[in-house]
Amino acid sequence: MNGFEAINQANGWSIAFLGAGIVFSGLVVLSTAISQLKKIIAFLESKLMNGNVIPPSTRPKLSKKIIRLPAVWPNDIREAAKLYTPLFEQLGSSFQLADLYRLSGEHNYPHPHLTIKHMREAEIIIPTGDGSFSVTQ
């Protein structure tokens, strides 16, 4: 027996459809997990912060200060760094990059990841050696 006859005899069609269904179900689960990854990470971060991994006494006290941003963001990284001065003042002399990202997001700074990356490359923000950073301005 050869060809389609052999496939029919050995229940090949049902096995093929079952395999395709399993693969499709796996892809659906994977894509759902990836789409919810941001929420999962935020949940874990909140649990770690509230679980006193970082003691409350060492967390910076951030005030809600209104910061005016220009309509056109400057191309020069030094000029952009001047716009970050109010954030640096709120964070203090030594700060975590996560706090700077969070604070720049709260104040609607445009593309903070790129700007902070370029400030690090230009050595405007330098590491202090203990996981914290400081500003050289």
Protein topology:
Layout (H helix, E strand, L loop, with lengths): L3 H6 L2 H24 L1 H14 L26 H7 L1 H7 L5 H10 L5 H10 L3 E3 L5 E3 L2
Antiparallel strand pairs: 1-2
Any idea what the radius of gyration is? 26 Å
The dominant shape is elongated
Number of helices: 7
Helical residues, percent: 55-70%
Q: Tally the structural domains.
A: 2
Order of helices and strands: HHHHHHHEE
What do the pLDDT scores average to?
83
Parts with pLDDT < 50 across at least 5 consecutive residues: none
Give a short account of the largest sheet.
2 strands, antiparallel
Beta-strand residue percentage: under 5%
Neighbour order of strands in the largest sheet: 1-2
Overall structural class, as computed from helix and strand content, comes to mainly alpha
Number of beta strands: 2
Query: How far is it from the N-terminal to the C-terminal residue, by CA?
Result: 82 Å
How would you characterize the overall build of this protein?
This protein is mainly alpha-helical. It has two domains: about 5-35; about 60-135, no CATH class. The chain has helices spanning about 5-10, 10-35, 35-50, 75-85, 85-90, 95-105, 110-120; strands at about 125, 135. A two-stranded antiparallel sheet has the order 1-2. A hairpin with a 5-residue loop joins strand 1 (about 125) and strand 2 (about 135). The longest helix has 24 residues, at about 10-35.
